[in-house]
Amino acid sequence: MVDALTLALAGVAGIIGGSMNALAGGGSFATMPTLIALGLPSPIANATSNVALQPGAVASAWAYRRGLGTIAGMSIKRLSIITFIGGLIGSLLLVATPTRTFDVIIPWLLLLATIALAFGRHAADWLKARTSIGLRTLIVAQLSLGIYGGYFGGGVGLMMTATWGLLAGSAPHQLAAPRTLMLAIANAAATMVFVILGMVRWNLCLPMLAGGIVGGHFGARLGLILPPWAIRAWTLAISTVTTIVFFYRAYS
């Protein structure tokens, strides 16, 4: 039996995570650590967090549907299939990862996600000025991003923006629609695996899911008011603190 305070904490984490995803991404920085603090093993916490944030990802993808288009000549359908396969592979890898191993891996995944949040767009601009990648490279990169999205997912949206920006030469705002759809697809693949294999703790997932919907709604409204630097600073602050805490937890 879960007490009211635990349910409330899960709901609040969902609100924060949903808001972060609506504003700039990185919602798992709020939801997964909260679930671990509430006593879930880290792989179960990551799976439960993924499922809790999925409705918000689907809603966002639907809202952006009119902005969909090809990426460097690759159709959205083909890109979706590659991403879905990657999401399945990544989620199965998570299921197979022992808790102790994942506890050691988590800080490095968080660090990678934080770096993507901090430097992803600048790195894309830097690389685009010096090189270009072909269709085969895009397929491999997208499969890798799908695997990462299914396994962990933190910061994968900005990683996609950076990769596609390098190839297609498009501005980040022009990639919002396909990025949001691919995130939803990778999460959907992972959700299927996690639900079927019993990786989700529904007593904490449901209040977090409800909070994520509320947070996504109000986060989108805040995004119309707050300046971009404030959104970026808030997201980076949460991701940096979370990363430091997990490194301390794993290696102290």
Task: Give a short overview.
The protein has 252 residues and is mainly alpha-helical.
General description of the model:
By secondary structure, the chain is mainly alpha-helical. The chain is 79% helix and 0% strand. The chain contains ten helices and no strands. Helix 1 runs antiparallel to helix 2, helix 4 packs across helix 6 and helix 5 (99-128) packs antiparallel against helix 10. The two termini are 32 Å apart.
Overall pLDDT score: 83
User: How many angstroms separate the termini?
Assistant: 32 Å
Shape: globular
| Rg, alpha carbons | 17 Å
| Contiguous helical run count | 10
Strand content: under 5%
**Low-confidence spans:** none
Q: Give the topology string: H per helix, E per strand.
A: HHHHHHHHHH
List the SSEs and their pairings.
Blueprint: H1 4-23, H2 28-37, H3 42-63, H4 76-96, H5 99-128, H6 135-151, H7 156-168, H8 176-196, H9 202-223, H10 228-251
Helix pairs in contact: 1-2, 1-3, 1-9, 2-3, 3-8, 3-9, 4-6, 4-8, 5-7, 5-10, 6-7, 6-8, 7-8
